[in-house]
Amino acid sequence: MTIKIIACEVMKEELLRVSSGCDIDFEFISMGLHLHPEKLGEELQHLLDDLSGYSRVILAFGLCGGAARNLKAAGFVLTIPKVHDCIPLLLGSTASYETFRSEEKGTLYLSGGWMNGERAILSEYDRIYQKYGERKATTVFSRMYSSYRRVLFIRTGSERESFFLQRSHQIADLLGLSHQITDGNISFIEKIVKGPWDTKDFITVPSGESINEWAFYEGKLEM
User: Fold this and answer.
1) Cβ-count burial of 76 within 10 angstroms (0-12 exposed, 13-18 middle, 19+ buried)?
2) Which secondary structure element, helix H or strand E, spans residue 57, and what is its range?
């Protein structure tokens, strides 16, 4: 039976790249819903409730602010990475993410997929700028990102990566942050598509059961 993957559009390009030749159905969700975890959870559950004919459904998400909490599998095995957001997926592991986090907690992580979203930082800045002027836009963004110290751009081999890298430099300049670049690692994304869906990196829920939020913390470093 075909596998279904429901994923955040942030990882769309990477997921499609590694799934070439695989018998998988994809559905991608707008990253804008991450601003409203409750709505994201409702949308995911609605999609899950409407599915049939799949042996396994994989959510290419993390806990995402609680959005995955209590999502129920119905008629299939439900699998989700044991992460809190997509950054460990782009870096290859939670351990890699923890390394960067220990270096600087105030890190704004960017990738091509993230910046291609509908509520990218520069687009939002331009919207506020056009409506309220430069002073207001600068004030708003200074407050929004006051806890950040650096921008870290994650290379994943995006077709427009040079463009997005340039934009990430612009974001760093706009926010007055340092800018760094690191190579991503798509091994975690490959596991989402091809397995193995082991208990170290994944939560697997049998049909009729729901995702337990505490499962995201089992065997992991404090996040």
Assistant:
1) buried
2) strand 56-60
